[in-house]
Structure formats: structure tokens, C-alpha cells
Amino acid sequence: MDITHALGDRVQWFRAEAEMYRWLEHYERKHSELFRVIERFRHDKVVWRGVADREEAENGGLNGAVTFGRMQAAMHKRLEHNARVIFKSAHSSAHHEWVSATGFDDLVIKVNNWRDVVFKWMDEMSIHRVYKDF
After folding, report:
1. What pLDDT, in 10s, does the model give residues 74-124?
2. pLDDT at 73
3. pLDDT of 117-128, one tens digit each?
């Protein structure tokens, strides 16, 4: 094999590896972004419920601010529920273990465990996984 052919193979290998990592990053990012959106809806629900409860306690009953706060809390509760249902039911495009994460830290652990299984062949061939440097 001549040197130019060998160099061409190496270039092709590195290009394919970079493309694989880009695909992997996008796949993981979609999961984490939907997870973040669900958590944001949950947080907003709690905040609006707290605003309504505080307004009711301070003013001794229902008023427009309390009603608005409860409506916002209910809306964010529905949004959280709907996003969670969609995320967990997207079996064809979502990773089945990742959707069961109980928190962002748990999601990161599940993603890292999945990477170890999927890329075990690289470890067996002593191929350096560049993302582990970070």
C-alpha cells in the first residue's frame, strides 16, 4: 500500500469519527433538552403555586392575582405532564433507558453508561475516545 493511500484512509477514518461524534452529540442533546424543558415546566408550576398561595395568605382570600397564579400553575402542570408523556412514549426515537431518568444527574449517568456499552469495541481495539478528555 502506498503512503498516499494510507494517508487517505486515515483522513477518512477521522472524518467518519468526527461525524459519528456529531451525531451522538445531537442525539444526546435532544434528550437533555426535552428533559430540561420538563424540569422548567415543573419549576414554573411550583413558582406560580407559591405566588398564588402567598397572595392568598397575605390578602386573606381569593382575588385576581390568586386566580391568575393558580391558572398559571395549572397550565405549567399540564405542559409538564404532556411533555413527560410525549418524552416517555417516543420509543422509536428516544432512548428507552434515558426517558426513565429521575433527574439530570441520573440522565448523565445513564448516557455515560450507554456510551461505555456502545463504544466497548473501541476500548477493546485500544482506540482513544476523544470525548473522555473533557
Report:
1. 999 999 999 988 887 865 566 777 877 888 899 889 888 888 888 888 888
2. 97
3. 888 888 888 888
How is residue 115 annotated by DSSP? H
Distance CA 120, CA 114 (A): 10
For residues 86 and 82, give the distance between their C-alpha atoms in angstroms, rounded to a whole number.
6
Domain spans of the chain, in order of start: 3-133
- What whole-number distance in Å separates Cα of residue 8 and Cα of residue 3? 9
Predicted TM-score (pTM) of the model is 0.71
Sign of CA dihedral 20, 24, 27, 29: negative
Radius of gyration of the chain (CA): 23
The rounded distance, in Å, linking the Cα atoms of 31 and 63 is 40
- How far apart, in whole angstroms, are the C-alpha atoms of residue 112 and residue 114? 5
Grid coordinates representing 26 are 445531537
Q: What angle do CA 37, 40, 41 make, to 5 degrees?
A: 90
